[in-house]
Structures are given as structure tokens and as C-alpha cells.
Amino acid sequence: MSRDKNKVEKVLLKKGFNKEEGKHHRFYYYTKGGQDTGIYTETSHTKKMKDIPDNLLSLMAKQCKLTKSEFLDLIDCPMSQEKYEKLLNDKKLI
């Protein structure tokens, strides 16, 4: 299922990602302690794209080092930033 692009971007910012402008909106993840993890994902600048389609959500999940189900939990808000960091720690990514 697709997700509203604006909602996804707002949630990423609330969960510790920092937005940088460029060819795309790029969101880099920083831990609560401010550590740059090197983990990032992107959304398009295209105004025509109101929703992020399912296939791109899968790609964003991979970029965030999550399964698609975990990523949907992150953006639909059951997963907190603390839980996201714990998953990354458990996977030895941070």
C-alpha cells in the first residue's frame, strides 16, 4: 500500500532523520546522541507524486536497513526512534 509522501517525510524528521536538499530530498539518520550512521533514504522532489508507491517503500526500507514491515511500522508510528536504534544496534549497523 502506498503512503502519503508528506506524512512519510514528516515522520522521518521526527524519528531522527535530517533532510538535505539536492536532486532528491535526502534523509540522513543520526542517533539520539548525534552520531552520523551513514544510513539514508530519499524521496522525490516531484510535486505530482502525492503518494509513495509500494515498490518505492520497499526500496526506502532497504536503504534504512529495515524489512518493509519494519519500515511501515517506523513511518506509521508504532516503532519509536529508540526501537529503530535498537534494531540497528542488534544488526551491528551502529
Please explain how this structure is put together.
The protein has 94 residues and is α+β, with helices and mostly antiparallel strands. The chain has one domain (3-90): Metal Transport, Frataxin, Chain A (2-Layer Sandwich), CATH 3.30.920. Helix content is 41%, strand content 23%. It has helices at 5-14, 54-63, 68-76, 81-90, and strands at residues 3-4, 17-20, 25-30, 36-43, 51-52. Helix 2 (54-63) crosses helix 3. The mean pLDDT is 92.
Q: Would you identify the CATH H-level superfamily?
A: Hypothetical protein
Strand order of the largest sheet: 2-3-4
The total count of strands amounts to 5
**Largest β-sheet summary:** 3 strands, antiparallel
The Rg value, from CA coordinates, equals 12 Å
How helix-rich are the residues, as a percent range?
A: 40-55%
Alpha-beta classification: alpha+beta
Query: And the CATH topology?
Result: Metal Transport, Frataxin, Chain A
Strand content: 15-25%
Q: Which residue ranges are poorly predicted, with pLDDT under 50 across at least 5 consecutive positions? A: none
- Give the C-level CATH assignment: Alpha Beta
Distance between the termini: 29 Å
Tally the helices: what do you get?
Answer: 4
CATH architecture: 2-Layer Sandwich
**Mean of all residue-level pLDDT scores:** 92
**Basic shape:** globular
What's the multimeric state?
single chain
| Number of domains as seen in the coordinates | 1
How would you spell out the order of helices and strands? EHEEEEHHH
